[in-house]
UniProtKB/TrEMBL annotation:
<feature type="region of interest" description="Disordered">
    <location>
        <begin position="1"/>
        <end position="22"/>
    </location>
</feature>
<keyword id="KW-0472">Membrane</keyword>
<feature type="transmembrane region" description="Helical">
    <location>
        <begin position="42"/>
        <end position="65"/>
    </location>
</feature>
<keyword id="KW-1133">Transmembrane helix</keyword>
<protein>
    <submittedName>
        <fullName>Uncharacterized protein</fullName>
    </submittedName>
</protein>
<keyword id="KW-0812">Transmembrane</keyword>
């Protein structure tokens, strides 16, 4: 009986050390309102996915943070206002999964650049482990030594990574460069390589293969110019490529470089491609009438074709569509994938894991899972 009395007394003494889950969630919610840095032009519905994952993760927070505290820390001010009682913030608990911790990290508005800074401050070599550690501290009600979104928009590292991919390099190349330069992380190799490319230097290896992003861009340029599959077949025979798809990629590459192809699309196909671009952008008859008056054209039909040509060339029209096109479901899923901190390299890994036909299909599948509140088999 005495032993049971001692246990009850011990439980009573430690009962209030468990943080109020409402307070913890309020703290993370407040942090998540800080303006977030756009990651390569993507800032969308992925927040819904991360928020859903965080809500699921917080269900087990009270049990996860029932550990003893050696030194009490100051509770985040927002958490204090959300809680009726002042409580000491527990030290980060290892019982919180890395997935839950990283979700909290991203939900608070932190990104890759902040992870790199924190890794240096904490002497952690693994960026993924850094994000998880930061997330645990946030969930424990602690504040991080740097604010979220502290890195400038379009940061230097973003520009360097973009230069790396724009030059046709990919994940396999980053792995090779990391080994060559004795870097711990292929991500660091991308940044270093991009910096060299922006400085006009050449890298010690050539691109492994045409990246998926570049190929998509080139194929889109091919179709956007009014060409179709039959034209690709003709070009494949003319250039002796393995497949019509290879001919599309090569043709798009030449078109983007301002070169002409040995065959021209029929006038009818070219006009149809321009009309498709016009309507796909959300424009209709009323806008065509306005554009015809603006450009002094006799027929609104001519205005549609001219407007479509401008859109295909990447130009903007002088008026906005009355009804902007709804975001396709696949776009939402892909955007959710990137917003959760994943990138092209992760899509390649998932494509191999799920045996999808392409990394793009893996992005769509992964985004759908994230929007449904599910977790992925790999971490960002």
């Amino acid at each position: 009986m005495r032993e049971n009395d001692d246990r009850q007394q011990s439980f009573g003494l430690n009962e209030n050390r468990t943080p109020d889950p409402a307070a913890v969630y309020a703290a993370v919610e407040e942090l998540s309102r800080t303006p977030k840095r756009r990651r390569r032009g993507v800032q969308v519905a992925g927040g819904v996915a991360v928020g859903a994952g965080l809500l699921v993760g917080l269900v087990g927070v009270p049990a996860a943070f029932a550990s003893e505290v050696s030194k009490p820390a100051h509770v985040n001010q927002v958490a204090a206002t959300a809680s009726a009682k002042d409580k000491a913030a527990p030290s980060p608990s290892a019982s919180v999964s890395e997935e839950q911790a990283r979700n909290a990290y991203f939900a608070a508005g932190y990104g890759l650049d902040e992870a790199e800074k924190l890794a240096k401050l904490w002497n952690i070599t693994d960026l993924s482990a850094t994000k998880a550690e930061a997330g645990r501290r946030l969930l424990a009600g602690q504040t991080l030594p740097i604010p979220p979104g502290s890195a400038p928009t379009d940061s230097e590292h973003d520009a360097q990574r973009a230069a790396f991919f724009d030059a046709g390099y990919g994940w396999d190349d980053a792995v090779k460069l990391a080994k060559l330069w004795k870097l711990a992380d292929p991500g660091q190799a991308k940044v270093k390589a991009g910096a060299k490319l922006l400085a006009g230097q050449t890298l010690p290896i050539k691109p492994h293969a045409n990246s998926e992003a570049q190929a998509d861009k080139q194929v889109n340029a091919f179709f956007g110019a009014g060409y179709d599959y039959d034209d690709a077949v003709k070009l494949a025979k003319l250039w002796k490529t393995k497949t019509p798809y290879d001919a599309k990629v090569e043709a798009g590459k030449r078109l983007l470089a301002g070169k002409k192809l040995p065959i021209a699309p029929s006038a009818e196909k070219q006009e149809q491609a321009r009309l498709d671009a016009y309507f796909a952008a959300g424009y209709g008859w009323d806008e065509a009438v306005k554009l015809a008056k603006l450009w002094k054209l006799a027929d609104p039909g001519q205005a549609k074709v001219k407007a479509g040509a401008k859109l295909l060339a990447g130009q903007t029209l002088p008026i906005k569509p009355a009804t902007p096109p709804a975001e396709p479901e696949e776009d939402k899923q892909v955007n959710a994938f990137f917003a959760a901190g994943y990138d092209y390299d992760d899509a390649v890994k998932l494509a191999k894991l799920w045996k999808t036909t392409s990394p793009y299909d893996a992005k769509v599948k992964a985004g759908a899972k994230l929007l449904a509140g599910q977790t992925l088999p790999i971490r960002p």
